[in-house]
Amino acid sequence: MMIMNGRRAIDLSSKTRSVRIEDIGAQLEVRRHPGARRLTLRVSRTRRAVIVTLPVQCDLDEAGSFLNRHMDWVRARLDSLPNHIPFEDSASMPLRGVPHTISFTGSTRSRLISIDKRPQRTAIIVPGDKDLAAKRLTRWLLEEAKRDLTVSVEKFARPLSLQAKRIAVRDQTSRWGSCSTTGGLSFSWRLILAPSFVLDYVAAHEVAHLVEMNHGPRFWALVKKICPEFESAKEWLQVLGPDLHRYGPARGN
């Protein structure tokens, strides 16, 4: 399978499933699916990846030709995506729905990340080695998300006499939250970037799945019972949620 990468052709063999195309600044993923009846192409907004899905019997050369024919469409879709905003000094990012400025101080006096709420300045202060600051900020955000989500899950589970077996926070891109059949709940750490009522809705949504492992009428009735204003949060996620994936460590870190 030959893909044009600038002036260079890339041979994507059957053993290779992912390659970065520098010409368009995106990762290419090739997936075979037994249920696929034809070649399909999409661009992931959350991961900025180009995904080609092909039937099991499809020849890789045919998939390469298919992608090359639609490269202008791919470029247009990628160009329409919001720019990535890396965690770096002076960058802006939301925290619990409030805009903050990131400040990598380089100070060694304290290793604790803090929030500066002085007038005209709301900043996340990240001390320590500046080369490691982005990773430290990412870990801190995961911890903050875990803390807020644990409180929120307990708040919604208590009236139902329920308890999650475990709560995990990850950098998942396909779902904001999920519930396993064993009672474990998993969430995206990026919910800490959204307003608190949005994080609460996702927590309530997954708590409801502890009772109803579906999205039927009884499930939504339960969500409304424990989180009456859920519809506004659901709409917020549908419209603005994908933009939360703009923020994070620099690509490749």
What is this structure, in a nutshell?
The chain is α/β, with parallel strands linked by helices and 253 residues long.
List the defining traits of the structure above.
single chain, Zincin-like, 15 strands, 253 residues, alpha/beta, flat
Helix-strand blueprint:
Elements: E1 2-5, E2 8-11, E3 18-21, E4 26-33, E5 40-44, E6 49-55, H1 60-69, H2 71-79, E7 85-86, E8 92-95, E9 98-104, E10 114-116, E11 123-126, H3 133-157, E12 166-170, E13 177-179, E14 184-188, H4 196-209, H5 217-226, H6 230-240, E15 247-248
Helix pairs in contact: 3-4, 4-5, 4-6
Within CATH, the superfamily of the largest domain carries the name: Metalloproteases ("zincins"), catalytic domain
Helical fraction: 25-40%
CATH class of the largest domain: Alpha Beta
Order of helices and strands: EEEEEEHHEEEEEHEEEHHHE
Give the strand order of the largest sheet, numbering strands 1, 2, ... along the chain: 3-4-6-5
Unreliable parts: 1-11
Separation of termini?
Answer: 29 Å
Approximate strand percentage:
25-35%
- Pairing-aware structural class of the strands and helices? alpha/beta
How many structural domains are formed by the residues?
A: 2
Question: Taking Cα atoms only, what radius of gyration do you get, to the nearest Å?
Answer: 21 Å
Kindly report the average pLDDT value: 87
Q: Helical segment tally?
A: 6
Q: What's the architecture of the largest domain, going by CATH? A: 2-Layer Sandwich
